[in-house]
Amino acid sequence: MTAENEKGLVHEGQASPPALDFGRAWEYAPSPEATDHVRIAPRQELYVGGRWITPRSGRYFDTVNPATEEKLAEVAEADERDVDDAVQAARRAYDRYWSKMRGSERAKYVFRIARALQEKARELAIVESLDGGKPIKESRDVDLPLAAAHFFYHAGWADKLDYAFQGRAWRSLGVAGQIIPWNFPLLMAAWKLAPALACGNTVVLKPAETTPLTALLLARIIEEAELPPGVVNVVTGAGATGAALAGHPGVDKVAFTGSTEVGKKIQRALAGTKKKLTLELGGKAANVVFADAPIDQAIEGIINGIYFNQGHVCCAGSRLLVEESVHDLVVRKLEDRIATLRVGDPLDKNTDVGAINSRAQLDKIRELVAAGESEGAQRHSAPCVLPARGYFFAPTFFTGVAQSSRIAREEIFGPVLSVLTFRTPDEAVEKANNTMYGLSAGVWTDKGAKIFWMAQRLKAGVVWGNTYNKFDPSSPFGGYKESGFGREGGRQGLLAYTELL
Amino acid sequence: MPGVAPSASVARVSSHDSTLSRYGSSARPAPYPLFYPPPPPVDQIAVEERAASLGKRSLKKGAKVAGLKLAVRMMDLTTLEGKDTPGKVRQMCRKALTPLDSDPSIGPVAAVCVYPNLVPFAKAALAGSTVKVASVATAFPSGQSPLDVKLQDVRRAVELGADEIDMVIDRGAMLSGDYAKVFDEIAATKEACGSTHLKVILETGELGSYDVVRKASEIGIAAGGDFIKTSTGKVQPAATPPVTLVMLEAIRDHYYATGRRIGMKPAGGVRTAKQSLHYLVLVKETLGDAWLTPDLFRFGASALLNDVLMQLEKERTGAYQASEDFSKD
Amino acid sequence: MSSRTTTTKEATADTVSATGLTGASRTMTSAAITAEADGFDPAARVSVNKAYKMYVGGAFVRSESGRYFQERGRGEVGGSADPLVVNVPRGSRKDARDAVLAAKNAGDGWASRTAYNRGQILYRLAEVMESRRDELRTSLERGGAGHHGAQAAHEVESAIDRAVYYAGFCDKYQALVASLNPVAGPHFGFSWPEPMGVVAVVAPERPALLGLVSTVLPVIAGGNTCVVIAGSEDARTAVLWCECLATSDLPGGVVNLLTGQAGEMAPHLARHREVIAVDAWSDDSELTAALEREGSGNVKRVRTHGPEDTARLATEAGQGLGFIERFLETKTVWHPVGV
Description:
The complex is a heterotrimer. Chain A has helices spanning 2-6, 80-98, 103-119, 121-132, 136-155, 161-164, 185-198, 213-224, 239-247, 260-270, 295-307, 327-338, 359-374, 406-409, 425-433, 448-457, 490-493; strands at 43-44, 46-48, 51-53, 60-65, 70-76, 170-172, 175-179, 202-206, 232-234, 253-257, 276-280, 286-289, 319-323, 378-381, 396-399, 416-422, 440-444, 462-465, 484-485, 498-500. Chain A is of the alpha/beta class. Chain A has two domains: 43-281 and 481-500, Aldehyde Dehydrogenase, Chain A, domain 1, CATH 3.40.605; 286-465, Aldehyde Dehydrogenase, Chain A, domain 2 (3-Layer(aba) Sandwich), CATH 3.40.309.10. In chain A, the strands form five sheets. In chain A, strands 14-15-16-13-12-17-18 form a seven-stranded mixed β-sheet, with helices on both faces. In chain A, helix 2 crosses helix 9 (239-247). By secondary structure, chain B is an alpha/beta fold. The termini of chain B are far apart. Chain C is elongated. By secondary structure, chain C is an alpha/beta fold. Chain C has helices at residues 30-38, 93-112, 115-131, 133-142, 149-167, 173-177, 208-221, 235-246, 262-271, 285-295, 307-312, 321-325; strands at 15-19, 25-29, 54-56, 59-61, 68-72, 76-77, 80-81, 85-89, 179-181, 187-195, 198-202, 225-229, 255-258, 275-281, 301-305, 328-336. In chain C, strands 13-12-11-14-15 form a five-stranded parallel β-sheet, sandwiched between helices.
């Protein structure tokens, strides 16, 4: 048995072998994306009525690169008067031409936007990563292709809406006020604009204050595609701008994606008005891993579910519910796996986890992580070196989490996973649904019947079976309960921008 | 005669004697304890996504050069043709020792891989060097001969001087569920190897699904293989990144169960420098630093070497290279 | 220049008899011939006449039979000279056989592409057609199918818009025709549409371009591959449209176009066991009846259309979900729901 001993064969009673070493042998060199072909104008104006105009107040706010804390540009701050100008422009455009055009002709405008997004994809991906902090690998390979696909997909509906509602007559709504978040700035703009335009509405879009740049580049694309003036208007600003837009009497429809807290405020503000509303809010999704799951692929799904886009994802799988019999195995594999995650410069092509979007968000994450530790959970963090400047947080997961812990109940919106266990499928369902949220869920098992059984019982608008974070313009996305109402994408998503008669 | 010490993950089923009695019989044993705990299922879509995403790693400058030089040192330079001659093998061995005359820091490769008849010529050509001579055996590539013939094939190759044996598993037995037979043949081959290093070729392109590849990997490891290898190179598809990932995962689980490190060799289908770097990333990010050595990872390749040399020269000079500047041995 | 016609019996030394392109016998005096020759301008540019071929397996090919038929030029149209005659391949039974083989070989690849990708390719086709708008219009005006001026321009625009229409349908029809079946039991039951396979299309004579687009694009939007026999009155426009297909990233073999006589080739397609469906737009009711009969040999899905259907192609009713749906199969799947 000498040969085996030399190789370190483990005998009964010995401790398990040393953990695999994901160390520094063969380091990947820095691989920065070339950005010399991209120029960000130092001052960004509002796009209203087909023109670039200065804000009435003359005020601008800074947008910053969260990886370096350096200022990228100053951006116009739209106040109530600017919002009013935009809504009026959208109304004029709707009344005078957009609502009068044939669907086939509207479609061709939307196809032009899709094409331009494909042509300018690299530039937009770079600006997205600079402005928001997400890795270039993700903005290049996920955000941009999906954004273009959304415009392509919805362009095709514009002249087929008579088919979409089972023969029921329909009409467009008018002017849509759309408020979008900072986690997928361009993609959220695509999710909002594409169906609204396809269904014959005009739009006033308010991007998030920390990530306005790609929405403004999209406005440039819309200008170059020669969409008639006022069909799309972009007003930049912070919460006040959004409130002004949602509250404006000239808006027929409000669409909001963001936190549940703000969503409730908007819903309250719209009470008593006749405005249509759709909300896409927060989540605390359960990613359920059964013992009969394809385990190594489930690990990938867990990792993707919580660390993709630094966990700034409303549908993030932020709670791992793992069958108790494989808990230790899964934890050991997660520890190995997070050791290979590369955290750092978003513009480096090898970066897996980029910067946290803002100082405010980083503080929130830190606060909840501290709560987790004080509640007695065990913290496991990736052994990575964080850059000295910028807002970064090491990918982390907690074991020993109770269903009642803050980190099991509150949305952290960061790269922090809470691991809980269950014993039976019924218990998995009970724990997964034991939340006020209901946006998404994941189920990992090799057994098809169990996937459908779980999917039937999970109170979530999107259920991913043996996969996670999959999006497609043809696939309706949206939440149950306090994760919001209404769907985006697919035939069902058209309902948000039409009225059935 | 004792069989091989079992790993904790697979119970040993048969003794050597019962192998002989089972050989040639129509009995189809696959006793339940052969797999305990059972190998985990493998999800095709997810494993292919993971393998592809690791292919997006961008290796530049020093990292690229270091990776490519390592890839050269990991190569089993291969010729396995009916028309192989001593002359062909001698020339290949020359290349194996000094892949690029103008840069002696590159290479030598890990091994050459030849048919048994050519082993003596390779040994002579490589005498005094670190380059090993691997021989295929066990009725390579099909494996469709009686066991005693296959074992004699192995013994003769060892006698002729092979440092390593690359065997093939019985895919017919694998696909018809006769896992005990597959196991027993590997165990018997390991025994016939003595102290000669054994690589077990699964011929993944014939196995039909990643689940079966995983199962075959576990059998190959449990029965005594030092390395598990994807392919003979005679069947398409040969090595692919996802199939390699499945095999690396089996090696990983085995390591954690026993502390033993098994090697892995993708063979066939790795033709470009870029592909070789992809495989090194797969190894680094699945098994970690300890496996980044020719003792635990090899490339079965022939055309790959020149593409790697071209890339190294391009990094050194800044100019894209022409294929005629590199010897075709 | 004067010419006198004399009967051939009285031909003298200084008259020459020739059979002209009009087919009639014509005699000219040598003086007349000289005068005509004197009108020829040696400095003028000589045009390069295009050879028109069928489009099979992504390549432009002649008939294996070597046969051809002729289309007459119309002199100068759209500012450029039309050749006097154009020789167009006259497709044979074997050409039809080769086209079916190409369509079959392209089938798996086309059906396994994402619906999004198919939509992208059809949109690219629309882009290419738009960039060749003038050329397509000129071709229609030169062709035998009767459209001129504003009518021809309108037909081209309609054809382009119809290509955009079907590009946008590739990834929509599924949500409209698939179903979740609420079966009475603990099973998940669902039905989804699949392409049928190789579909043979006999394109209408008119409208020459819009007719082709209207009958071929919905077939391939659904994931099928196609062998189409172009109308014989304007084969040139059909071939020009194939040049648009060939530059649109459409994989070879997805659309295969044969020129020649539908009456000669269509029955062989209807008899061919690799063809699963036939879509025949022909005024010849004997032909369409024959196709229905032949199609029964392997239970083909056969659709035939007369003049009323063909007339609708030029209107909004010439496009729609039905055009795609009629060449889709429905697959129903059951799976238990349980732990």
